[in-house]
Specification:
Helices cover about 35% and strands about 10% of the residues. The protein has about 240 residues and is of the alpha/beta class.
């Protein structure tokens, strides 16, 4: 299944192939169980219940890398960060930054579009307890690597949401750019910034999970600062 990732000629083909992946038995079992049992509030809805592809244009200058789809968010709707509280926070911030045409993301057919930005997850299936294993992350990595290859001509900045996504990014330097990852690895933190030669700059951002946004660890102002910085580093302010 993963052998298809390097052969995908474009994002549409890659997204279709991602959605048909069965490489990780634990994740397959969980995503399908959630889709069958369903949450009471969504019992009348048909869940996606498959891996969730990336979302956004092929000429993106900014990539946002998350952890994995939410069990009753992306795993239900089929679009990353769509239909859950994390997405509510993220897309509101992207709209404020001029990177999304609307502040909400509730369903795959709600008219949302992104500007200069593509969103993907390090692991494409919803994991139990929202905790994929390192093996599952590494098994899923070829999808990320090919996605970055396809947007490489325009990509300038990567925003990693949380320490898991931050750690998942570094192998991409070797696989996509032929660059040895920095040693020791840069330390994750909100507002962390790393830059190298001829590769995208990387920004760290606390994940938009409820445990961060409800407790005030991550505020709208903090998100706005990250995306304002990402816009500037990506050269988007010059396009205005």
């Amino acid at each position: 299944m993963l052998a298809r990732a390097p052969r995908a000629s474009g994002l549409a083909e890659l997204d279709a192939e991602v959605s048909d992946c069965f490489a990780c038995p634990r994740l397959v079992a969980w995503r399908e169980e959630v889709a069958e049992v369903r949450r009471a509030a969504f019992r009348d809805q048909e869940y996606w219940g498959r891996p969730v592809p990336g979302f956004g244009p092929a000429d993106a200058r900014i990539a946002i890398l998350g952890l994995a789809p939410a069990a009753h968010g992306g795993n239900r709707t089929g679009r990353i960060f769509t239909g859950d509280r994390s997405g509510d926070v993220l897309f509101a911030a992207l709209h404020r930054a001029g990177l999304a045409n609307q502040p909400t993301s509730v369903a795959s057919d709600d008219g949302l579009s992104l500007r200069h930005t593509r969103i993907a997850a390090a692991v494409r299936c919803a994991p139990p307890d929202n905790k994929p294993t390192p093996v599952e992350r590494d098994t899923c990595a070829p999808w990320l690597h090919r996605e970055i290859e396809l947007i490489r001509p325009t990509l300038r900045v990567v925003v990693t949401l949380g320490a898991f996504a931050w750690a998942a990014w570094w192998p991409t330097l070797r696989h996509v750019y032929g660059v040895r990852p920095p040693t020791p690895r840069p330390r994750f933190g909100h507002g962390a910034h790393w830059s190298g030669d001829a590769v995208p700059q990387v920004l760290g951002c606390y994940h938009v999970s409820q445990q961060n946004t409800f407790t005030g660890r991550l505020t709208p102002a903090m998100l706005d600062e990250v995306f304002t910085r990402a816009r500037r580093l990506a050269g988007l302010d010059e396009l205005r």
